[in-house]
Write a structure and sequence with these properties.
Elements lengths: L1 E2 H7 L5 H9 L3 E3 L2 E2 L6 E2 L6 E3 L2 E2 L7 E6 L28 E2 L7 E8 L2 H8 L7 E8 L4 H9 L2 E2 L2 E2 L4 E8 L4 E8 L6 H8 L4 E9 L2 E2 L8 E3 L2 H12 L13
Parallel strand pairs: 9-15
Antiparallel strand pairs: 1-4, 2-3, 2-5, 5-6, 7-9, 7-17, 8-9, 10-14, 10-15, 11-12, 13-14, 15-16
Bound molecules: uracil (URA).
Amino acid sequence: MERLQKILAQAGVASRRKCEEMILAGKVEVNGELVTTLGTKVDPDKDTITVSGRPIKGEKKIYVMFNKPKGVITSASDNKGRKVVTDYLKGIDERVYPVGRLDYDTEGLLILTNDGEFANLLTHPKHHVPKTYHATVKGIPHGSALDKLKGGINLEDGMTAPAELEYKDIDEVNKEAVISITIHEGRNRQVRRMFEAISHPVLRLKRISFGDISLQNLKRGSYRHLTKDEINHLQQIAMSGLLKSKTPRKDT
Ligand code: URA
């Protein structure tokens, strides 16, 4: 027997806190009976649970990695009719949600799942899951400028945590550089703001890895299911709040 809000969150309905609000708001029924008491114990294998009349029991857990193209919204729908990530997930019938978000103009690795607990675990700021980006920036930053970002830089929402940075490519002709940056937080437009703070605005941004999971040769606009090992690995890394620095695997 498990607490109702935990079962709802695990089924990908919403975060546990939101599920509690749904229970209190009278949206949840167990075996046809309205339940508004938090902490009610249910048996997910036997009880029929509905949210606003829709059954949630037995939903298959889906975990996918998607190579998001630029110009796509990290959302399940968009009221302005722009392309959204779920437009690319042909063949997946379950409702999946992005784990964290990438800006409209950012491309690269995005994980989507219907497992709300897993998503919360990976995006919780306390869990420090490392995320690596390749940022093409305007101008060629000096080592001292990169050192500022490595140590932490003051943005309008406070100091950033230490980050790992290295040069990937320097284009002397066009005066651009590609820098690999690994951050352990997930603030809004964080990488772009960090480079803006050292006066090297980002021209192109691509996330190449999340934890130890990397895009490798996944084509832009394509997705694949994560393996059991990859799912377990991400869970472990988030649980242990691993801060170790890592070298992403070879990427396209
Ligand atoms: N940092 C950014 O600036 N943008 C993203 O999309 C992700 C990280």
